[in-house]
Specification:
Layout (H helix, E strand, L loop, with lengths): L7 E9 L6 H19 L4 E8 L3 H9 L4 H18 L6 E4 L7 H13 L3 E11 L4 E3 L4 E2 L2 E2 L7 E10 L5 H9 L4 E3 L1 H12 L5 E2 L1 E3 L8 E2 L2 E6 L1 H6 L1 H4 L8 H6 L4 E5 L3 H15 L6 E5 L2 E3 L2 E2 L10 H8 L1 H11 L6 E3 L1 H30 L6 H4 L16 H19 L3 H22 L10 H21 L4 H13 L10
Parallel strand pairs: 1-2, 1-14, 2-3, 9-15, 14-15, 16-18
Antiparallel strand pairs: 4-5, 4-8, 6-7, 8-10, 11-13, 12-13, 16-17
The chain binds zinc ion.
The site of zinc ion (ZN) has 6 residues, from loops.
Length: 499
Amino acid sequence: MLVKTKGFFITTSIAYTNTPPHLGFALESIQADILARYCRLLGKDVFFLTGTDEHGQKVVKAAEEAKKTPKKFCDEISAKFKKLKEILNLSNDDFIRTTDKKKHWPGVKKVWLNLKKQGDIYKRKYQGLYCSGCEAFITKKDLINGKCTIHQKEPEIIKEENYFFKLSKYSKRIEKIIEDEVIKIIPESRKNEMLNFARQGLEDISFSRPRKDLKWGIPVPDDKTQTIYVWADALTNYISALSYSKNSSKFKKYWPADIHCIGKDIQKFHCLIWPGILLSLGLPLPRTIFVHGFITVKGQKMSKSLGNVIDPFKLVKKYGTDPVRYFLLREILPTEDGDFTYRKFEERYNSDLASGIGNLVSRVITMVAKSNTEFPFMEAKVKMRMKSSSPSKQIPNSVFQAEINKTWKNYKKALEGFKFNEALKTIWGLISFCDRHIEKERPWEEMKSAGWRKKKVIGNLLFALGNIANMLQPFLPETSEKISKQLKTKEAKPLFPRI
Ligand SMILES: [Zn+2]
């Protein structure tokens, strides 16, 4: 999945600006960031996009409650999402806002007109089930016991005249696309779920709302009485950010997206509606849609009313960026729901970061400093590269080399399968290997002598640490840099003080 010559395009979904960022979007952003950083290490020309989805009635309502105009409200919330880049150390290349009239709106209008040109947009009187929670018309198939499965609420019946998109026309093709993995949906269980929906036949979907009911949105280009509804507005961000046009070099270079990283609540939009739009536009389809689960808190869904929302800003302020990145990727299974508690967080922090990598680095660097021996190959080892090579004939010894090779192999396999937790487990396996080696060889016992045995032991450990720093680069970029620096300066400074 990760090999090709064109630019590599990775996106998160765009976050809805009715509430400030919570830990769930932080997770998605970090997952996408790790993929982006990993692909850059492999030498790919990566474009990593994130942003905010700002239109719709829910935003208007939230703004009213805050006694602000929708514009001011969105500016403030969007700025908080934008700030995630800084606090989570994200490497995104761009940040798109759907209220951006210069960057986003022209793309949306163009998409609308091109869909219309294909004969895929038509007006019709409509009566449908509308869930105000979803802010969407839903079908009977979406209901369990007459209620929306996401909001546990009975939908209202709404009658109005809207524009529709002929999704039904593409239903069979979308089914085949999912089945044949033209778009690879990860994990497999999500693919099967989407395939089941497609097999039931996709219905045409409402693509606009009357302007009188939805003023906060992009007007339909040739009908001022209607506002473009979320699909053609929000999903289009992925191409408007590349200035969607045959002549745009960015668009030519990066489209189709290689990875859309999304949450399970919006998989239908991405796996069923988005391909329909792209097929109508005659554009290539995204290659992979990676679907993550939700973060729960003590087993419960995070929600304002329960008062259990974890604020990523507070978390980072208390523990630092890398511990948050580490916990979310190590503890939360990539495609399942996962639970957050402060107790678990601190346990992981102390065992894996303070006692694990932190302790190993400080032990090895202290030995280097005390040993009074030159290790001329250190510089080469800390260079970023995705495979290990031998700095000298004796170092690393064959056992070390085999262990490091095995770790790289498992690490790459895990990352290419989006198994972030497995990749980290693999690195920590190498850390334990080094710890065991130190215990067995006890190099400090001959610290004062200039013995070759000691030099070999420490040399092997340094070589392993250089590789560990490389492997950590996508996950814990700051820590990786600190380790590299300590390998150079031979000055041990605690990476993660115990809490
Ligand atoms: Zn709903």
